[in-house]
Amino acid sequence: MTGKTYVVTGASRGIGLEFVKQIISEGDIVFACARNVSSSKELVDLAAKNKNNVIPIVLDTTKLDTIHSAVLEVAEKAPDGIDILINNAGIGSTLDYNIETVPQEEFTKVINTNLIGTSNVTQQFIPLLRKRGEQELKKIVNISSIIGSITAMDGSRGSGQGPAYGISKTALNMLTRLTANHLRSENFIVFSIHPGWVSTDLGGASAPVTSQESVRGILNKIQQCQPTDSGEFFGFTGASLEW
Ligand SMILES: NC(=O)c1ccc[n+]([C@@H]2O[C@H](COP(=O)([O-])OP(=O)(O)OC[C@H]3O[C@@H](n4cnc5c(N)ncnc54)[C@H](OP(=O)(O)O)[C@@H]3O)[C@@H](O)[C@H]2O)c1
């Protein structure tokens, strides 16, 4: 799939930075959004070496003004719009909390980033995706987590990242289904995908999946997905996951 234009959030490190590397290796263009571009030496270096394909953009998913100015900048540089939005930015939650102890501030912080931030970004980038026209397939991918699967938590008291994280990703999955339904008639495909347990700052060093493997699988799914995949939940291998 050459000649596509992507927007990726949380591109400063981890899975988001790996998206940037693999997208440009296929000859595509990526607007690499990070809340603090200059603090990511890898992103700055990648952009310097690939001036035509990597455009770093300042965007904090929890700050509407930065999303607004990011959209204006992308619109100026990509006047015909974008093909794919990858909502990757996210934060973990504090492992020490359980459902009895998790404080309000924890819910507020995690849900604000993982759910509301994603919704903010999607709302503001939809017009740039629509610019591609009704005939073109447009895609929105929400990076979710198996920890947001209610079925996967059967019998569990919550695993991995603490309750606020899992709940934020469950809600993100509902956002995915509703966004898919909202945009279905306009030739959009919208889905949630679990990247695997990936060795990043968030996943930790003992995670079994590398960001390279994870992103290869997700990009493959993005390229192969069909309209019937819209509103659904997948793993990075492309297999369906239970909600
Ligand atoms: N790693 C895993 O095992 C795993 C498993 C399931 C799901 N996921 C999901 O995969 C996505 C990427 O995770 P990761 O493992 O790559 O984590 P990571 O290494 O901690 O990177 C997180 C990225 O999100 C960015 N970010 C956080 N809050 C942001 C905000 N308000 N605005 C803009 N960017 C923000 C960070 O930017 P800064 O550098 O500025 O902090 C960073 O670029 C997340 O949505 C995560 O929930 C990861």
Automatic annotation (TrEMBL):
UniProt keyword DNA damage present: no
The UniProt record lists the keyword Transit peptide: no
Entries under SUPFAM superfamilies matching the protein: NAD(P)-binding Rossmann-fold domains
CDD domains listed in its UniProt record: carb_red_sniffer_like_SDR_c
GO molecular function, one term: oxidoreductase activity
Pfam families found in the cross-reference section: adh_short
Record GO cellular component, one term: cytoplasm
UniProt keyword annotations, A-Z: NADP, Oxidoreductase
Superkingdom of the organism of origin: Eukaryota
Protein family: Belongs to the short-chain dehydrogenases/reductases (SDR) family.
Name the UniProt record assigns to this protein: Uncharacterized oxidoreductase C663.09c-like
